[in-house]
Amino acid sequence: MSNVDRKRKANGDQNLTPRKKFQKDQAGAFNDRQSHNAISSNHSSPGSLPPLPDIDEKYVDEVFTHVTVSANTNYDRLEFLGDAYIEVIASQLIYERIPTLPAGRMSQLRESLVKNETLGQYTVLYGLDKRLKQFKRIQNESKQAAWLKIKGDVFEAYVAAVVLSTPDGFSTVKTFLTQLWAPKVDAVVAEPRASLKSKEELGRKLLGKGVTISYVDEREPVIHYGQGKETYYVGVYLTGWGWENQYLGSGKGLSKGVAGQEAAAAALKNHPLIDEIVAVRNAFYEQKKEEDRQKENLEKE
């Protein structure tokens, strides 16, 4: 029986079929109007996204050329540079914006900001993918994972081009990305501090030798196009103390880590099940203590 089936059984056979939902993509067409030697975004930003910065015309061919179109002039080198800029800006933003965030959680948040799924989303929202030379051919010939990486690469190349286009390009990109990532970062800032310890508390209550607590994706994340964020859904299950893959609770959040913490918090409130498991665990350790005492007394005699 799958985890989803177990949860259905425990909750009255609710409809939990995993499926991906997308909010409507409101991206408008990218404005190619030129001003002097710069390519201006002049973009009616989709949703609440910030305007796309300009790039110098001399970088346009590189940014929007895939290696299969030209081996000499393509976005590979710009993508390499843009990847580094994005990583540094994300790291500094998280470090300065959330000074109390643990290092492990900082890494998780940074990954959610810089991963291809996120950057590829921005590429689509700003219409950068459609500006690729031979866009349709590349899209049709690429597998899903490859096309996702291409979209991420294009965004990274564009970021590098913005940095190189003007003397204050790095500052421009930093401001742009800070605004772009604001929904994801603000969601972490708004996390209830107590919930960040729910997993730890659940582990203290239930774990023991040979006992496992598993956090699993219950469905694919819901992507909120135009808002720069995703909602994740996680369930928590216990194996041990006489239970096999027992569903304990579910949670959702704007990161997988937050969703897991919410699932643990729900499990802690899952009475009387959680009380029954804790009672079995406590009884086991009480019996073990008694056996150890008896053994110690025999050795003294």
UniProtKB/TrEMBL annotation:
Do you know which CDD domains this protein is assigned to?
Answer: RIBOc (cd00593)
List, in alphabetical order, the GO biological process terms annotated in this UniProt record: rRNA processing; termination of RNA polymerase II transcription; U4 snRNA 3'-end processing
**Domain spans labelled RNase III:** 54-167
GO CC, alphabetical: nucleoplasm
Q: Write out the entry's keywords from A to Z.
A: RNA-binding
For the keyword Transmembrane helix, the answer is: no
Chain intervals for the UniProt region annotation (Disordered): 1-52
Q: Which InterPro entries match?
A: RNase_III_dom, RNase_III_sf
Quote one Gene Ontology molecular function term.
Answer: RNA binding
What top-level branch of life does the organism fall under? Eukaryota
- The biased composition feature labelled Polar residues covers 36-47
**Family matches, as Pfam families:** Ribonuclease_3
Q: Which PANTHER family match?
A: RIBONUCLEASE 3 (PTHR11207:SF0), RIBONUCLEASE III (PTHR11207)
- Supply the name of the protein: RNase III domain-containing protein
Source organism: Exophiala xenobiotica
